[in-house]
Amino acid sequence: LAFTPSAGAQVVPAEKGTSSPPLTAEKVPSARCAPIKGKPKAHPTDAQADKLFSKAIELLDQSRKVEAPKAAALAQQAVVVLQKMIADFPSSSDASVARFNLGVVLNDNLRRPREAIAVFRALIKSNANDAEPTENLLFPYRNFRFHAFRMIARAELGLGRPTEALRAVDLAKTVYCSFSDSSRRADLARLDRLTKRIQSGAGDTSK
Fold first, then answer.
1. What pTM was computed for the model?
2. Rounded Cα distance, 89 and 98, in Å
3. Helices in the chain by DSSP H: which ranges?
4. Helix axis angle, 144-158 relative to 181-200, nearest 10°?
5. Terminal CA-to-CA distance of the chain, rounded, Å?
6. How do residues 55-108 score in pLDDT, each as one tens digit?
7. Which of 52, 157, 180, 182 is the one with CA 20 to 30 A from 75?
């Protein structure tokens, strides 16, 4: 959303452990699609949170320029910074963006899909506003829950669980906020491509 790490060098082995019970439609909060009018109201902790967020992005930028295992080490440092930001400033304006990016880094850079799924589930159940504006004209709204489910589908695919991946895809479609036909078409086309990869038995090779 605010920053998507490149695939880069990914050398951290997949973690072990059991997964959480799958989310079902009954357990998924409704999308929060109330458009924000005017400039979003700043939170008192935003300045402090922004420093941590900027530090995490800087670490991730550095990780794209080096080889493994240094890239993985920098990504892990970014994870620690993002976790601190979320824990210390849960009400900051960028907390939901930080949570999403934390999940992306865990899944894409560090190959820890189970941890990533847990982060995305927490985002889905949070008070994130899916209609939070972006600076992207094609995709004007954050759609946190939609993208969290999309990432869960990718993580489940990486774990070799196509049934769970398809369930996440189906749930993503139920929480999409759209006030623009073009953005909806583009995002759902992206989801359709992921669905085809899942159904074909291909691994997760794209964002």
1. 0.82
2. 10
3. 46-63, 70-88, 95-104, 113-124, 144-158, 162-174, 181-200
4. 10
5. 12
6. 999 999 999 999 998 999 999 999 999 999 999 999 888 999 999 999 999 999
7. 157
